[in-house]
Amino acid sequence: MEIFTGREGEIVLKKYSPIEELGNLAGEYAEAMSRTLGYLVCITDHDQMVAAYGPKQQEYQGKAISPELEETIKNREAICAAENEKNRIPIVKDEQMGTGAQVIQPIIAAGDAIGSVILINQKDRGKPAESDRKLAQIAAGFLGRQMEN
Fold first, then answer.
1. Which of 12, 15, 63, 80 is 20–30 Å from 44 (CA)?
2. pTM of the full predicted structure?
3. E strand or H helix at 133, and its extent?
């Protein structure tokens, strides 16, 4: 829980998000990955989208994550799914399904699941490549280590 004062002297209570501390870094990392891969790249904490870059990023940036994604992060599950597979989940609340293949990798810092890295390939709707899964693991590992420092 973060406590601070507002412009008019009011006290503001805000739920603490460790990933938000990395907001700029997370955004730059998502942008670099998206520019290289051509995918929508999202970075979340356990409540909301912290960074989104790539095709249709405006549909994701700053939005609350879906209950299914929240549960996936909590359970430390990795998902690698084609568009029509049963294990594919919505990323944000009220998302229209069918946006392409997805890779979801939880971010672990100091033993806690604190968010996720998501790659969505909207051009190829088949099973994501093993290299995509590895890239998401690298990104999640890097961001998790940054939180530990």
1. 12
2. 0.84
3. helix 130-148
Q: Where are the domains of the chain?
A: 19-148
Residues 45, 106: Cα–Cα separation, whole Å: 9
pLDDT tops 90 at residue 80: yes
28 token code pair: 């730059």
Q: Cα 68–16–32 angle (5° rounding)? A: 70
98 and 49 Cβ atoms separated by less than 8 Å: no
Helix (H, G, I), strand (E, B) or coil at 1: coil
User: Which CATH number applies to 19-148?
Assistant: 3.30.450.40
- The Cα–Cα gap between 92 and 82 comes to 18
